[in-house]
């Protein structure tokens, strides 16, 4: 972005050029090695354009200074609005002060074929608080996409500059302006198929579909009309009005006016859906879905309605605010690229996480409840009160996640909620926070077109841990009262983290502003080291020290618990670290027996950070692991040991041996699930490829665990892990036997998606049988959406390299990446660990299109693309390719994209570094 400084004095150069003091706008467009500046006079008397091609630096500097001088001389603030592509922060801030009483009346004609264009027509109504300057709408369509622009009933001239429609204020009045635009909608965010489409406009995709003021703090009322092929149905933010008409082969749906919402929350989905409705104690819910397995639908729908209603009522009780929107409908969409999206009135969910198989595991059931509660909590945090700018997008995510955890705790009373919280958040938060690519929870954002890169595990998993810690420090009632005040104060409006911190500070007994500086506004995490000392008269003590990253001046304030274990008994002590700037704390434990005690750092999992252990401390924890009665202590030990393994303090083989022991003997399903995830990564990155004995030991233990349980929910977890790690022919044959029996069975205990995934893994191990494996699987698939996915991904496991190469090459082109979830799955199989010799050439090419992936993909896609691309590449040569890319392109790609590269290559970096030291 270019920021043009303000100035009041009239410059001589300016007066020479512009004696009438015209309003000027400066636009700088950069295209590869071509640059040109355009100076345009808005008053339409004349347009002066100076184009400079391949100018040298001196000439560029001269003209830059000249332009700045002219602007300093006579521009008002409108003229300084920098019109760069996207929505710049500067543009958004200026516009927020000018536009009021905003509403959109929009009509879309959706043709039957998904390759035909969508016609759109809209009337934007608003007040405008300025006589001078211009009004700037956002729209990414080109000139041919805009058919006609009318302003206050007159056809007018406009300019199309860098994804903006610019209209002179001379056509505008103070109140009730009506801009009517006929346009062709862009397809990028319409997710169209022949019998289904849905919008996904977060964070700044509304402007790809229709001209609008695409920023979260210009909330508006939307009135939608959809002209659809006959037989389609639709939902949107508001209910369908009475005037639904049918003529010929088309149906028109007219919706009522929506509630006051931001553009990124405007939504509709249309297509061939089944519909179900439910009323629970006076609240009505409706769901659109495409799953055609009647048994599966019957098994799941009631639970879905129940959890939606439970979450709504829980949020009403906690916030003291009744459900704030007209209705709560759901659309369950196949292969939706997110897990869910919280559009008021039409909340979208991905079908794979909603319609669970009969064999669904406890973590899957909890994940579904968590997802429903998360999206529902957003209706208050995000939808009712919205961040003014996407740099605070983390706020809506953290509170949605925070309340989801509380709601799930009640929905699953038998589940250990502290364990669930630790397992759900800590491993994922550390997976990014330990890397060079970590970022503060609150990030800077200069342009909305980079908002997608704000999302990640820091927002979704570190922030909930940090906010839970804040609640513990403040006390739950003070915390709840502050949140209630925040929601009441800013209802239907916008509020930033700064606004909330001010309210927190009124309710807390410490400075939340200071707390925020280290936890929210700084990147990275605290590192803790500790020493144990013994004094016969007192017992023993732990000196816990906090090492601060150099850029952090204030220590991290948090409560940390240590547990001392003697035989089977544990005693716990907590320390408040960081109080009044202190970086050290002593915990006293009475009755210590020298060398016989085991200390577990962060035993309750409430603390956040890296707890550094030496080899003796690691060995002591491993030795005492089986004596730990509390599952939270066991989980916390595994997390701490794994982090120490990644830092070279604990051997990979010993880690794997512990995980195998856990998998074989652990009874807690959540702990088994977490250990299997860690086992996969330790096995892939920290065991040598030649270490056949360890690999065999892992496979044997997993099969043992599989055969010793009768619980299908556990069996499926073991099978999923075996499918990924199996090396021996014996394992592959055993897996094939199970798969071939299930895939043709009418009474399956393994879900369809698992069977497809097992088939892909088997094809890689049994290339000579791959075509029959794929054919049998294909015949077993009853759902058309699943069949489409299967056919797409099958190409990635073809035994012929030439077929896989062709698929990979096709993924480099945007038109073949429309189904991003499928693309990520296919790319992962193309880069399978067993084929990494043949896929090494994909690495450099896949990395080279990252900026395009960022520009064209949905918010989670850049990271998904990278994770899939790097999956299976574990050698020093592979890491050298990544390093080569970083040194060549690191400075030219956006910092947030570079950070994703660091995050996704962190395990590869650590494994090569540890291997090189051996
Ligand atoms: Zn969310």
Automatic annotation (TrEMBL):
The keyword Metal-binding applies. It catalyses: Release of an N-terminal amino acid, Xaa-|-Yaa- from a peptide, amide or arylamide. Xaa is preferably Ala, but may be most amino acids including Pro (slow action). When a terminal hydrophobic residue is followed by a prolyl residue, the two may be released as an intact Xaa-Pro dipeptide. Residues 312-519 form the Peptidase M1 membrane alanine aminopeptidase domain. Residues 191-265 form the Aminopeptidase N-like N-terminal domain. GO terms for molecular function: alanyl aminopeptidase activity; metalloaminopeptidase activity; peptide binding; zinc ion binding. One of its GO terms (cellular component) is cytoplasm. InterPro entries: Aminopeptidase_N-like_N, Aminopeptidase_N-like_N_sf, Peptidase_M1, Peptidase_M1_aminopeptidases, Peptidase_M1_dom, Peptidase_M4/M1_CTD_sf. Belongs to the peptidase M1 family. This is Aminopeptidase N.
């Amino acid at each position: 972005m270019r920021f043009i400084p303000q100035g009041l004095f009239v410059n001589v150069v300016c007066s020479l050029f512009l004696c009438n003091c015209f309003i000027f706008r400066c636009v700088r467009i950069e295209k590869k090695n071509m640059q040109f500046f355009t100076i345009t006079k808005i008053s339409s008397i004349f347009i002066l354009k100076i184009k400079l091609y391949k100018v040298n630096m001196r000439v560029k500097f001269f003209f830059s200074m000249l332009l700045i001088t002219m602007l300093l001389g006579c521009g008002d603030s409108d003229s300084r609005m920098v019109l760069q592509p996207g929505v710049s922060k500067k543009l958004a801030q200026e516009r927020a002060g000018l536009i009021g009483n905003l509403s959109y009346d929009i009509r879309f004609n959706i043709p039957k074929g998904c390759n035909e264009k969508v016609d759109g027509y809209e009337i934007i109504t608003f007040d405008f608080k300025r006589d001078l300057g211009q009004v700037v709408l956002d729209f990414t369509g080109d000139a041919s996409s805009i058919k006609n622009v009318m302003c206050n009933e007159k056809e007018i001239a406009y300019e199309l500059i860098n994804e903006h429609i610019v209209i002179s204020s001379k056509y505008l009045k103070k109140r009730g302006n009506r801009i009517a635009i006929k346009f062709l909608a862009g397809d990028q965010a319409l997710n169209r198929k022949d019998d289904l489409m849905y919008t996904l406009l977060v964070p700044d995709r509304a402007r790809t579909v229709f001209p609008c003021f695409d920023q979260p703090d210009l909330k508006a009322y939307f009135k939608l009309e959809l002209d659809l092929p006959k037989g389609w149905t639709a939902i949107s933010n508001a209910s369908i009005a009475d005037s639904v008409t049918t003529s010929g082969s088309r149906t028109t749906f007219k919706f009522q006016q929506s509630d006051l919402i931001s553009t990124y929350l405007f939504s509709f989905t249309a297509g061939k859906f089944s519909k179900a409705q439910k009323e629970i104690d006076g609240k009505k819910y409706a769901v659109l879905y495409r799953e055609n397995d009647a048994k599966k639908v019957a098994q799941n729908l009631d639970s879905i309605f129940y959890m939606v209603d439970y979450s709504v009522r829980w949020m009403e009780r906690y916030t003291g605010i009744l459900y704030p929107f007209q209705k709560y409908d759901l659309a369950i969409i196949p292969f939706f690229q997110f897990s869910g999206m919280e559009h008021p009135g039409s909340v979208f969910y991905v079908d794979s996480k909603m319609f669970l198989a009969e064999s669904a595991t406890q973590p899957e059931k909890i994940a579904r409840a968590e997802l429903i509660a998360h999206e529902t909590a957003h209706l208050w945090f995000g939808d009712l009160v919205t961040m003014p700018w996407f740099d605070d997008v983390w706020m809506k995510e953290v509170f949605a996640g925070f309340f989801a955890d509380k709601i799930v705790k009640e929905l699953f009373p038998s589940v250990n909620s502290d364990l669930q919280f630790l397992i759900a958040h800590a491993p994922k938060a550390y997976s990014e926070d330990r890397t060079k690519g970590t970022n503060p929870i609150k990030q800077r954002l200069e342009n909305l077109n980079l908002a997608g890169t704000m999302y990640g595990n820091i927002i979704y998993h570190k922030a909930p841990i940090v906010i839970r810690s804040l609640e513990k420090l403040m006390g739950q009632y003070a915390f709840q009262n502050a949140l209630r005040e925040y929601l009441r104060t800013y209802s239907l409006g916008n509020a930033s983290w700064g606004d909330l911190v001010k309210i927190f500070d009124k309710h807390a007994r410490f400075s939340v502003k200071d707390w925020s500086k280290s936890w929210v506004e700084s990147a990275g995490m605290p590192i803790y080291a500790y020493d144990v000392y013994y004094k016969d008269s007192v017992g023993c003590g732990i000196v816990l020290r906090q090492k601060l990253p150099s850029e952090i001046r204030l220590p991290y304030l948090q409560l940390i618990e240590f547990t001392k274990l003697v035989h089977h008994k544990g005693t716990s002590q907590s320390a408040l670290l960081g109080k009044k700037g202190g970086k050290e704390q002593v915990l006293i434990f009475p009755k210590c027996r020298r060398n016989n005690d085991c200390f577990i750092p962060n035993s309750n999992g409430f603390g956040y950070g890296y707890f550094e252990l030496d080899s003796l401390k690691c060995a002591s924890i491993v030795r005492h692991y089986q004596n730990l009665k509390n599952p939270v202590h066991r989980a916390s030990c595994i997390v701490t040991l794994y982090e120490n393994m990644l830092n070279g303090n604990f051997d990979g083989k010993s880690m794997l041996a512990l995980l195998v022991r856990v998998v074989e003997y652990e009874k807690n399903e959540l702990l088994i699930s977490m250990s299997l995830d860690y086992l996969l990564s330790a096995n892939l990155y920290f065991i040598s490829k030649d270490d056949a004995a360890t690999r065999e030991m892992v496979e044997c233990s997993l099969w043992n665990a599989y055969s010793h349980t009768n619980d299908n929910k556990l069996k499926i977890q073991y099978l999923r892990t075996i499918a990924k790690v199996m090396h021996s022919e014996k394992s592959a044959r055993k897996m094939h036997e199970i798969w071939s029996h299930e895939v043709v069975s009418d009474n399956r205990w393994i879900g369809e998606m698992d069977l497809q995934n097992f088939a892909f893994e088997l094809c890689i191990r049994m290339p000579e049988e791959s075509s029959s494996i794929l054919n049998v699987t294909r015949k077993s698939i009853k759902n058309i959406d699943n069949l489409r996915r299967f056919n797409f991904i099958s190409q990635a496991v073809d035994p012929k390299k030439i077929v896989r190469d062709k698929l990979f090459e096709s993924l480099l082109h945007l038109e073949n990446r429309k189904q991003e979830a499928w693309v990520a799955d296919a790319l992962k199989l193309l880069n399978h660990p067993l084929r990494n010799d043949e896929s090494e050439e994909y690495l450099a090419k896949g990395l080279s299109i990252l900026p395009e992936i960022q520009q064209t993909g949905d918010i989670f896609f850049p990271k998904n693309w990278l994770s899939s691309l790097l999956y299976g590449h574990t050698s020093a040569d592979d890491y050298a390719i990544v390093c080569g890319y970083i040194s060549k392109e690191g400075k030219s790609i956006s910092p947030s994209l570079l950070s994703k590269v660091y995050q996704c290559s962190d395990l590869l970096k650590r494994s090569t570094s540890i291997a090189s030291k051996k």
